[in-house]
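Anyone up for a design puzzle?
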């Protein structure tokens, strides 16, 4: 009977240990995904800011560019809308995680005035 109790207690201890290790692995994977998501968002924001800088410096209303930043990539598209409005679509990616930002520029003269800046699921 004593041997049976020792075996049961050992099995329970082993089950608890396996559970703790498994939750630690799951937590690490979640942390890594959150880190990649934040980096992808940073990439998209960097490209969006680059596109705004291009509009500000050159006055262009139509351009596409791809950039490599650190360990990821990003791209942007500047396209004209009605009047002096512009739409900027910026995409940043790291690994398999993608982030997209859509900016609407209300006018470019006498200054750049943004009407919206939002992270979107798709364009």
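Challenge accepted. My sequence:
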């Amino acid at each position: 009977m004593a041997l049976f109790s020792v075996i049961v207690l050992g099995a329970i201890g082993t089950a608890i240990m396996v559970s703790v290790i498994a939750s630690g692995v799951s937590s690490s994977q979640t942390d890594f995904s959150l880190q990649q998501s934040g980096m992808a968002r940073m990439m998209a924001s960097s490209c969006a800011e680059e596109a705004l800088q291009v509009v500000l410096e050159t006055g262009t209303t139509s351009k596409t560019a791809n950039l490599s930043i650190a360990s990821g990539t990003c791209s942007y598209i500047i396209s004209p809308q009605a009047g002096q409005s512009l739409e900027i679509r910026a995409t940043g990616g790291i690994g398999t995680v993608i982030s997209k930002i859509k900016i609407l520029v209300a006018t470019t003269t006498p200054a750049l005035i943004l009407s919206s800046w939002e992270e979107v699921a798709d364009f």
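A detail worth pointing out: Strands lie at 63-69, 72-80, 86-94, 97-107, 113-120.
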